[in-house]
Specification:
The complex is a heterodimer of chains A (121) and B (164). Chain A has five helices and two strands; from the N terminus they run H-H-H-H-E-E-H. With 121 residues, chain A is mainly alpha-helical. Chain A has a two-stranded antiparallel sheet with strand order 1-2. Chain B has 164 residues and is α+β, with helices and mostly antiparallel strands. Chain B has a seven-stranded antiparallel beta sheet with strand order 1-7-6-5-4-3-2. The longest helix of chain B is centred in the C-terminal third of the chain and has 16 residues. Chain B has one domain: Alpha-D-Glucose-1,6-Bisphosphate, Chain A, domain 4 (2-Layer Sandwich). Classes of the chains: A mainly alpha (121), B alpha+beta (164). Chains A and B meet through helix 1, helix 2 and helix 5 of A and strand 1, helix 1, helix 2, strand 4 and helix 3 of B.
């Protein structure tokens, strides 16, 4: 029998989460949200080398979070938002599962207490 | 063992532990709160060490199945089980969205009386997990706002901009 989740992600969320878990990579994504950029431009605000930025970009590419042109010389990187939206949606769903369940439990407990207080109804 | 990433959730309920305990251990009560916005069905709930809880959640024509195998049952105080996603035959399966999500999560629920209220703590820890499973769980839990902090807000901002 097929097991189905609440949402249907476009990418493998495992890879998306491990890509997003790094602060430098999240900062790169923030920069790319303002428009495409080449490795050199991306490296400027960080105190790390271009090869290090390239490595981060590869991780982001593998996770489907970034696309790069193959034939253009600068190979600018571009943000792909969908996998990120899926990851955020998954996290919200996880959080909502418990907070929503516990809200329902609050109501149930109130009902039960009221029922206990009026046993001879 | 303390190195394992853990998801911790604290909540205080306005009822004594004896009553809160009932809502975690009586099927007809569990069905009324477990799973927001879904139809919750307890297929089996045998709350004792070695007993099992088989649960189905239905929404929009879909079903999600999970099982819990109890390893520790201390009434009104502590409930421990191994939690897993399953197929419709209650056989443990991988999470379809996250193949590296831990197959087994050790779940510990503790209840402490605080006046006539109950302080409840729920923790999830990967159990007998592979390195990949632990890494996946850790990355996802970091995103729950504990590790990423402002990072999560940033992602939400980016998404809003892109959608707007």
């Amino acid at each position: 029998m097929e097991q189905v989740g609440y949402i249907n992600p476009s990418a493998n969320l495992d890879a998306v989460f491990s890509a997003l878990a790094d602060p430098t990579r999240r900062a790169i994504l923030a920069r790319l949200s303002t428009g495409e950029a080449a490795v050199q431009e991306l490296a400027e605000p960080f105190s790390i080398s271009q090869p290090a930025i390239s490595k981060h970009l590869k991780v982001l590419e593998r996770a489907g979070l970034v696309e790069r042109d193959i034939d253009r010389q600068r190979r600018p990187a571009r943000l792909c938002a969908q996998p990120m939206a899926d990851a955020v949606a998954w996290l919200e769903e996880f959080r909502n599962f418990w907070s929503g369940s516990f809200d329902q439990l609050d109501i149930l407990l109130e009902d039960l207490k009221t029922a206990e207080e009026t046993p001879n109804e | 063992m303390s190195e394992l990433p853990t998801y911790v959730l604290d909540r205080t309920f306005n009822a004594p532990p004896a009553l809160v305990w009932r809502t975690w251990t009586e099927p007809e009560l569990v069905q009324r709160w477990y799973g927001p916005g879904v139809t919750s069905i307890v297929h089996k709930m045998d709350v004792r060490e070695g007993g099992e809880w088989l649960h189905e959640m239905q929404w929009g024509g879909n079903s999600n199945y999970q099982r819990a195998d109890y390893s520790e049952v201390t009434p009104h105080t502590r409930l421990v089980w191994l939690h897993a996603n399953t197929d419709g035959d209650w056989m443990i399966t991988a999470n379809p969205m996250m193949p590296d999500w831990p197959r087994l999560l050790l779940t510990v629920v503790t209840m402490d009386a605080e006046g006539d209220k109950t302080r409840l703590r729920l923790t999830w820890t990967p159990h007998e997990a592979t390195d990949k499973e632990i890494a996946c769980f850790e990355a996802a839990m970091d995103g729950m706002g504990q590790g990423w902090g402002k990072g999560m807000d940033m992602l939400e901002e980016i998404l809003k901009e892109l959608q707007g």
